């Protein structure tokens, strides 16, 4: 799997299977694991699965962590992240690759899906745990610890029960109560948007959305997950 990074002068293409594109000279491609993109003082851009663990090149570990020497003498600055999914040897989804926020460079991802979901849950549950009805909204994200992370899920829905109430809520390890949106008398093309903003600590976080209906069933037509750190 390839990914292209836009630099000031040219594009750099990294391949997960190419040993020379990893710090240490061995591919660390694996399933369900985060990876990080680093640059050294000479401008070499390489990958590793170790997250940044130092705040500067002197080895300090307080504040925003942006560097890692990967156990050697060379300091690498982290400039991006990605998540290797459970497909094959660990492939990439385009919505789980991003920059790390640095100055005006946003750390943001977007996932869209057109799978039609029939919702009959009356209590919120996650599809990733095989119990929830709303599919394909899960996104793995890495927060730089800088700024505010905004999470938005927008859906279009239709339902046959005119008096039904639909609900939509976000999850970041637990359900976020104040992210909930709802609609009554849902008709074809009715939209709902769940939204949340929070200053997340630096590190890995998984976001997902879930939907409920007060009775009968509803059909979710389109889903968009937007996560932006700014």
Report what the structure shows:
With 230 residues, this protein is mainly β. It folds into two domains: 2-100, no CATH class; 109-229, Sf6-type phage tail needle knob (Jelly Rolls), CATH 2.60.120. Helices cover 0% and strands 47% of the residues. It is built from no helices and 16 strands. It has strands spanning 2-6, 11-15, 33-39, 45-48, 67-68, 76-84, 92-99, 107-113, 117-119, 139-143, 149-159, 165-171, 181-184, 190-198, 203-213, 218-229. The strands form four sheets. Strands 3, 4, 5, 6 and 7 form a five-stranded antiparallel β-sheet that branches. Strands 8, 9, 11, 14 and 16 form a five-stranded antiparallel β-sheet that branches. The protein starts with a strand and ends with a strand. The model is unreliable at 4-8 (pLDDT under 50).
Layout of secondary structure:
Layout lengths: L1 E5 L4 E5 L17 E7 L5 E4 L18 E2 L7 E9 L7 E8 L7 E7 L3 E3 L19 E5 L5 E11 L5 E7 L9 E4 L5 E9 L4 E11 L4 E12 L1
Antiparallel strand pairs: 1-2, 3-4, 3-6, 5-6, 6-7, 8-16, 9-16, 10-15, 11-14, 11-16, 12-13, 12-15
CATH architecture of the largest domain: Sandwich
Bulk shape: elongated
What's the CATH topology name of the largest domain? Jelly Rolls
Helix content: under 10%
CATH homologous superfamily label of the largest domain: Sf6-type phage tail needle knob
The tally of strands reads 16
Number of helices, counting only DSSP H or I runs of 4 residues or more: 0
Structural class: mainly beta
The secondary-structure element order is EEEEEEEEEEEEEEEE
- State the end-to-end distance: 28 Å
CATH classification, class level of the largest domain = Mainly Beta
Q: What profile does the largest beta sheet have?
A: 5 strands, antiparallel
What's the Cα radius of gyration? 20 Å
| Mean pLDDT over the residues | 91
Unreliable stretches covering 5 or more consecutive residues: 4-8
| Tally of domains | 2
Strand content: over 45%
